[in-house]
Backbone:
């Protein structure tokens, strides 16, 4: 709980100061990308974050990074079982998108979901304890890495079937419209899921009914071991909604400012009743598809180059120092605080008991 | 010879209709394609077009006549060079047609005799306008003296949805053709007018997608009723039903449930072949997290659908197209609810237990009548809810009869009958005087040909034979 309180404060600050830059971002020419084959598309000219935003983004991304590193470690120790899909490298996407949301907006994603939950301010202890299958986990240890939910934080999972969350997220948006509230749903999915049939069934209905949903395609370039080029006839995934007249843009998903700016545009579009919007976040996962994937389908150099030149956290770090927003010592302090949160989560997740055997038979029906 | 215009069948299950209106009168000329009459079925009003050219010589059926059987001559058209005098000869034609009709059952009877276990006329019987009625009242707790209203299963389903939608604005219905078309099988007739397009929602033909949208809306706290035009099409959507709807409550540690009803016709209709005739009862009944309901009577259809909509869980509500147009007494109560998970003794007896549900009840009840003629008193149990299964009611009956037969249109392997048989071994072994016998659909994809389709489905005779066999008679 300490963790949640600690990071809530900068977040609110970030949100309140976001208003001014949003207007500017809206006018800027969105990278309604030409059929770009290149991965790093510039998406907006207005990429300035103020100090609070930079600090907030840095801390949030760092928390996800450290959390995932710890999860990888616990997996190696045999404390986490089954599938475990790490988000390392993609942190800017959820952090930037979350900065574009307001209270009541919903988030749903697939199985690479730890980062999304942390960005939604879910308690790292509850997430980690779910990974280790303990009773204090978000799903009492019955869901695991891929299946966590928080009604309170408007996080709707955590879904293990590739593409299913796209229809479900469209349904969440349907509920918003049905209730005539002004909430928006973010439905995240990957480049792999972008070839699933139900994605297009959902696109069609979302546009037909003008549902307030933003489809965020996290294109990390590999659907498990298959590169986008080997799986998709057209690799510009932002245009996957073209035949439904859903606007889309490619975004540099390694730059949290670009993500936030695009998120603002997309969320505004959806909230204003214009219907769905697609953001293709061009990003990169440093680790394999899951813990058991040695990722031999790509070169070490490819990964190394991405880490050195495009790491989302390193880029913010540099900017913070250069702008004089923070000193090395300040950032060390943040790292220390984040490590403490993650260590506390790991400690809890290691020592929390497994669910009571009687839990086997609960929560099947209400 | 004048040309006979016959009462057309406008759907695979239509057997009779109302001749609502003549649009031509005697003496009018018609060419092929001219609309000559309007016919009302229980589902819709349809136009009848002339196929031949000529002059209307005689209208044989008066406008407004109800229950005109399919293939009854309704008009005579005079061809080239014919005048009214031809009608005298032609008048004999309807009579001939009747003779021909009369011959058919005889043929069927002969076939039945030749192969006594395969009652070829069972399906036709089951689709008759008067379904066999349970001998017991709809529900024991219906107050004495409650007025009973006769209504079709179709009307009962619509009333159930409409009542729940009036009560709870979280409830809405979505599916293909549910709104403007008034329902592919007219279950949602009139609902668009009452509730408007925000709550009665036509979807594109996109089962996988709209099932997911429905589940998402349910996760967000709405209570969708998702209509599948048939459950055959729900195979496209079964991932969302099972992986997203049925499992989320468990996977979330009880935090997030999915209150949703998936409903529509299940199983064989008539002559629609293998891809449109599958019974999915056993499939869904295999899954923890799902509630599976398959009513037979209109009263149960109404009371159980209302209960299903109120339920906090994912409910699979399996209807049957052949039952839609059949009428049963329904208690006239403001809020008639039938509890989920409770079977009903549809006919009390002491010699053998017959368990069925949905359309299987037509075979079971008719078989019970035939058995009674031979001095065997069958106790017929209408399971109504398949999951959770009311094992206690079956066991109590078997304790009395010592014998049990299950009846279902679905396949035998891993079927519901197989499940009941296993439960009887677990819970009633000491009371069984004979092995459990299952009457099921045959282990083949549903054939199209009328005779083969009849053979593929269970029959009343098969149920009778099975009941006798467990009675060692």
Residues:
């Amino acid at each position: 709980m300490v963790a949640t309180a600690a990071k809530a404060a900068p977040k609110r600050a970030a949100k309140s100061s976001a208003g001014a830059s949003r207007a500017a971002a809206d006018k800027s020419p969105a990278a309604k990308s030409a059929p770009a084959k290149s991965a790093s598309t510039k998406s907006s000219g207005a990429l300035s974050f103020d100090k609070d935003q930079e600090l907030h983004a840095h801390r949030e991304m760092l928390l996800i990074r450290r959390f995932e590193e710890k999860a990888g470690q616990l997996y190696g120790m045999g404390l986490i079982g089954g599938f475990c899909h790490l988000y390392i490298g993609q942190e800017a996407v959820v952090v930037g998108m979350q900065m574009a949301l307001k209270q009541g907006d919903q988030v749903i994603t697939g199985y690479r979901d730890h980062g999304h939950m942390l960005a939604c301010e879910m308690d790292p202890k509850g997430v980690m304890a779910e990974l280790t299958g303990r009773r204090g986990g978000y799903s009492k240890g019955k869901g695991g890495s891929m299946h966590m939910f928080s009604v309170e934080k408007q996080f709707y999972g955590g879904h293990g079937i590739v593409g299913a969350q796209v229809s479900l997220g469209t349904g969440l948006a349907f509920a918003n419209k049905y209730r005539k509230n002004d909430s928006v749903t973010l439905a995240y999915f990957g480049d792999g899921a972008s070839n699933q049939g139900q994605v297009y069934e959902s696109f069609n209905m979302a546009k037909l009914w003008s549902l307030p949903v933003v489809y965020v395609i996290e294109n990390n370039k590999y659907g498990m071991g298959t590169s986008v080029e080997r799986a998709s006839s057209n690799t510009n995934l932002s245009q996957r909604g073209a035949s439904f007249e859903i606007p889309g843009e490619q975004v540099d998903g390694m730059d949290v400012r670009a993500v936030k700016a695009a998120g603002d545009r997309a969320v505004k579009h959806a909230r204003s009743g214009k219907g769905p919007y697609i953001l293709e976040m061009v990003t990169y996962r440093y680790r394999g598809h899951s813990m058991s994937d040695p990722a031999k389908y790509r070169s070490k150099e490819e990964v190394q180059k991405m880490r050195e030149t495009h790491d989302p956290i390193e880029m913010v770090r540099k900017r913070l120092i250069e702008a004089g927003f923070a000193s090395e010592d300040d950032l060390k302090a943040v790292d220390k605080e984040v490590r403490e949160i993650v260590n506390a989560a790991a400690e809890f997740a290691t020592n929390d008991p497994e669910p009571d055997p009687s839990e086997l038979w609960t929560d099947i029906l209400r | 010879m004048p040309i006979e215009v016959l009462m057309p069948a406008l759907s695979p299950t239509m057997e009779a209709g109302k001749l609502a209106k003549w649009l031509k009168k005697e003496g009018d000329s018609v060419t092929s394609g001219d609309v000559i009459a309007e016919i009302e079925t229980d589902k819709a009003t349809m136009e009848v077009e002339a196929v031949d050219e000529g002059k209307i010589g005689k209208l044989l059926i008066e406008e407004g006549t109800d229950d005109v059987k399919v293939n009854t001559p309704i008009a005579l058209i005079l061809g080239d060079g014919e005048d009214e005098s031809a009608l005298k000869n032609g008048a004999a034609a309807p009579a001939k047609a009747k003779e021909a009709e009369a011959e058919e059952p005889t043929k069927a009877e002969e076939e039945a005799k030749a192969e006594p276990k395969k009652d070829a006329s069972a399906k036709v019987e089951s689709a008759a306008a008067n379904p066999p009625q349970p001998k017991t009242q709809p529900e024991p707790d219906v107050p004495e003296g409650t007025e009973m209203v006769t209504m079709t299963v179709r009307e009962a389903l619509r009333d159930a949805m409409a009542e729940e939608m009036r009560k709870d604005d979280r409830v809405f219905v979505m599916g293909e053709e549910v709104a403007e078309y008034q329902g592919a099988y007219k279950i949602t007739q009139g609902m668009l007018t009452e509730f408007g397009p925000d709550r009665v929602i036509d979807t594109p033909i996109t089962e996988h997608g709209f099932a997911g949208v429905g589940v998402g809306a349910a996760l967000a706290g709405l209570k969708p009723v998702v209509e599948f035009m048939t459950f055959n099409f729900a195979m496209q959507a079964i991932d969302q039903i099972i992986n997203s709807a049925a499992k989320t409550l468990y996977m979330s540690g009880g935090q997030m449930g999915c209150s949703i009803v998936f409903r529509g016709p299940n199983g064989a209709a008539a002559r629609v072949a293998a891809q449109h005739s599958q019974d999915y009862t056993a499939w869904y009944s295999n899954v923890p997290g799902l509630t599976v309901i398959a009513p037979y009577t209109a009263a149960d259809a109404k009371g159980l659908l209302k209960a299903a909509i109120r339920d906090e869980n994912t409910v699979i509500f399996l209807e049957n197209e052949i039952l839609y147009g059949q009428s049963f007494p329904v208690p006239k109560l403001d809020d008639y609810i039938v509890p989920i998970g409770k079977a009903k003794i549809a006919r009390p007896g002491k010699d053998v237990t017959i368990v069925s549900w949905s359309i299987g009840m037509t075979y079971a009840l008719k078989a019970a009548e035939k058995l009674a003629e031979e001095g065997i008193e069958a106790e017929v149990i209408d399971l109504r809810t398949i999951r959770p299964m009311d094992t206690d009611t079956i066991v109590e009956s078997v304790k009395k009869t010592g014998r049990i037969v299950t009846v279902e249109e679905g396949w035998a392997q891993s079927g519901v009958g197989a499940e009941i048989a296993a439960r009887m071994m677990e819970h009633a072994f000491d009371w069984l005087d004979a092995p459990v016998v299952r009457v099921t659909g045959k282990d083949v994809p549903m054939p199209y040909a009328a005779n083969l389709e009849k053979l593929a489905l269970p029959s009343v005779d098969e149920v009778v034979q099975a009941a006798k066999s467990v009675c060692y008679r």
Summary: The CA atoms of residues 148 and 183 of chain B lie 26 Å apart. Residues 148-331 of chain B form a domain with the Rossmann fold fold (CATH 3.40.50.970). The first strand of chain B starts at residue 3 and ends at 6.
